[in-house]
Amino acid sequence: MKTSGKPKYIFYGLGILILTLGASFTIQSGLGASPFDALLVGLSLNVGLTVGSWEIIIALILIGCNSLLKRQRPELLGLLTALITGLGIDTWLFLWRHLLIPELWFSKLVCFGIGLIVIGIGTAIYLHTNFAPMPVDRLMLIIRELSGMNILLSRTFIYILFLTMAILFDGPIGIGTLFTVCLGGPILSCFMPK
């Protein structure tokens, strides 16, 4: 996908909108969110603030870490992405909280599966714009660059790192979290070339 000029920003916004929609589906499924989202939900439930607010706070920390790893000035545009993503997640969760409440095991699995695929599509779309990637995705790309890992391994490494932190903050960990760790990287690498 080649993007330039105005279409670049349209794809950027569309990708984030799709990504946050997928994240809200996985959170609402009740099967366990992605490790990063589970950390955000755990912080929200145990410390306070909204899930989106924690997205922004963690983004600030990651921007500093990424800057140290790359030995360059902080990429503050990543904060814009985190702000939009945080607002998107909070908005979707607000909209879905009474409308999307899967109760049967099958409906929870479908809700989660749709969310996982939609996250992969949204992430691939906005990463292809090469404009202000989320700090967590920039960290994935930095790890790939520094270690020589492919995108699948670097994404899985990031998932394991955030899974550990989500467990510490009692985030919603479940079978869906395991599916995300195992399938998130392959789904993203499947959509990246497209």
UniProtKB/TrEMBL annotation:
The chain crosses the membrane at residues 9-27, 39-64, 76-99, 105-127, 148-169, 175-192. It comes from Paenibacillus sophorae. It holds the Pfam family DUF6198. Keywords: Membrane, Transmembrane, Transmembrane helix. The keyword Transmembrane helix applies. This is YitT family protein. InterPro entries: YczE/YyaS-like.
